[in-house]
Amino acid sequence: MNNAGPTLSDFGNDPLWLSFLKAVCIFVLLLLGVLFGVWGERKIIARMQHRYGPNRAGKFGILQSLADGIKLALKEDLVPRKVDKVVYILAPALIAIPAFLAFSVIPFGPTVSIFGVETPLQLTDLPVGVLLVLAMASIGVYGIVLAGWSSRSPYAILGGLRSSAQVVSYEIAMALSFVAVFLQAGTLSTSEIVAAQAHAGSVTLFGVEIPTPSWYVVSLFPSFAIYVITMFGETNRLPFDLPEGEGELVGGFHTEYSSSLKWGMFMIGEYVNMFTVSAIAVTLFFGGWHAPWPISIWDAANTGWWPMLWFLGKVALAFWFFVWVRASLPRVRYDQLMAFGWKVLIPVNLAWILIAATMKAMRISEGDRTVIYVLGAVIIIGAFAIWLRFDTVNQRRAEAKAAQIEEEFKQLREEPAAGGFPVPPLDLPHYRGVVPAARHSTDAKEVTSGSN
Which regions form coiled coils (predicted)? Predict the structure, then answer.
């Protein structure tokens, strides 16, 4: 068997029953992933906060998510009277269905034998497979926007508008973070990108030959770092969960959805999207289903069904990172979110793409190109750190100036005759009821005598 994995020519040959079996297996795997993901997130955050978390339903509370799902399915489904019912009911499906479809091009492993048929552990692949994932992510935001619009609630509409602006800005940065990977691998096919990361190279530095990892997370680290940030903006997770914003928008786009099956579909879509972006990160930057070192020393590590285990383990670690960030970082302000996406992520990404494209066009050897990539990454990250430092200093100066202006206004409010205009304090009972007369008076004595 080919340890590098299948190619595009290996797809499209499966019988219909096998394609249907693959689709059902992916669907069941994602549903089980949602159940265990919700339980795992609650358990991890609870332990980080010195709590037990779910511990009643089943051993270690492992059946809690299943009990919650049954409860959501059986609860009464309340629909507000003034909503657009067709769009209101359709919106949750528009979020959940594209999240499942995006997994159709994710490679789980190499070619294996299923009931005597040699087939790749992947539902299908396309010459532009990664673009299909971006397309599904773009369609998913329609569910959020339509859920907010159809609810006829100001909080829901604001949440939907926030989500549309957030996805537009962060999806541009996400797509740009893929460009360097496409240049490096020479393809947009997910299976071939994984195959391109199968063989490690080497670089000669000061006369010493040093092996270089094949995973793009090393040679294309700036692309990976930007993609990690955009993952949170794409999935509306903390610290970028502004479309929900419980502290200011009640529940955001799903405020008018009762805790029923439709609300549960929003949660299913959110968690499946988390698995999707995690699987894309593993596919593009962490070698896909290839075994990590030192497991890769084993000859059979990348054959048979073992690669599926390595792939699911990498996705689980990426999901754990989502949970860790949620438990560690606070929500950012909306203006900070948008400014960071447009003023930082996109310009830095464009600069990095320029470096990667230049190295590719100069036809520099793979090993020397890796060294240049690493040096370029250090320069870009250093420039960003310096900019962030100066930006923080400028922000502190602006905050200090705003505090000074506020103090001056406070002093003006405390002095009734400040600026030569005799306006009495509004909170004194002696002057209540005569404020309109005071506005036309130019003498404080007239105000006093008028009140008497």
Answer: none
Residue 424 above 80 pLDDT?
Answer: no
What is the C-alpha separation between 73 and 79, in angstroms, rounded?
15
Do residues 424 and 416 touch, judged by C-beta distance below 8 A?
yes
Angle at 158 between CA 156 and CA 162, to 5 degrees: 120
DSSP-based three-state secondary structure for 201: strand
* Same domain membership, residue 420 and residue 372: no
- pLDDT confidence of residue 269: 86
Please compute Rg for the chain using Cα positions: 28
Q: Give per-residue pLDDT as tens, 278-327.
A: 999 999 999 889 888 778 888 788 888 999 999 999 999 999 999 999 88
* Beta-ladder partners of 201: 212
Domain identity same for 206 and 264: yes
Q: How far apart are CA 243 and CA 287, in angstroms?
A: 33
Residue ending a domain, among 338, 362, 385, is: 385
pLDDT at 255: 79
d(C-alpha 442, C-alpha 39), whole Å: 70
Distance CA 424, CA 436 (A): 11
User: What is the Cα–Cα distance from 439 to 450, expressed in whole angstroms?
Assistant: 13
Say what the pTM is. 0.77
Asked if 425 and 292 sit in the same domain, the reply is no
Fill in the DSSP letter of residue 244: T
Residue 307 and residue 121 in contact, taking contact as beta carbons nearer than 8 Å: yes
CB 253 within 8 A of CB 146: no
